[in-house]
Amino acid sequence: MIDIEPLNLSYNDDKVLQAVSTALTEFYCALTRTLEKINIDKILKRKNPYLYRAKGINSASQIVENILSAYISSSEETLFGNCFFEPIAKVVSGGQKAVTEGVDITVERDNIIFSIAVKSGTSVFNADSRKRQEQNFQSAQKRAQQAHKAFLPVVGYGYGKKKIKSGKEKFYKELAGKDFWEWLTGDPDFYIKIIKFMGTQPDEYAQQFELSYSKAENRLIREFTINYCKDDGAIDWDVLIRFNSGD
After folding, report:
1. What is the total count of domains within the chain?
2. Which of 46, 149, 225, 228 is the most exposed place for a label (fewest CB within 10 A)?
3. CB-based contacts of 143: which residues, under 8 Å, 6+ apart?
4. Structure pTM?
């Protein structure tokens, strides 16, 4: 259970539905743009060609599939957090886009300014990024002090669970999954309703994305074959390793 009062007990279903629809569109557009911009040479510079050889990989398609899968996996979580959770949280909270860097939403209510940083899952922070987040909250706090308002910063995670051990409390709240959405809306089931608001739209976009993925895969296989394969089609490991680790 959360121990602070909900921000908005009267969110509008139609506005949430529109926000979810727009968020899904933005997410798939961003994901498709990522596919279109992927550059095989830039990625190969960061990959381990010795590992590919050690695993017995001998085809361009295997390497490209490995590259594409890893690239999309590393991109989609961040893209989804930015495109999906944040705009929905803004709509249901009744808040405004924050002006402070590192803070996504500002809600002012009962002489209190709530600064909300929306994150995807609960594993987004390392020591450095957490420190930056704390500094961003401190900047927002100064604005609240100048306006003579009370201040409550919150990191909200779109999914997952976050339990804070006794004695480990920070100067900001951390709420995840059910707790986060319930705080925003006062609705204990809102975190489940998000799926229902999606309807069948993800199925329609998934088909379009599959086509974009196949086109990107074909393009990268062609580029890899031209640059890193011998005339007989075999991978030219000497060329690949020189490109990755040589002069």
Report:
1. 1
2. 46
3. 99, 100, 113
4. 0.82
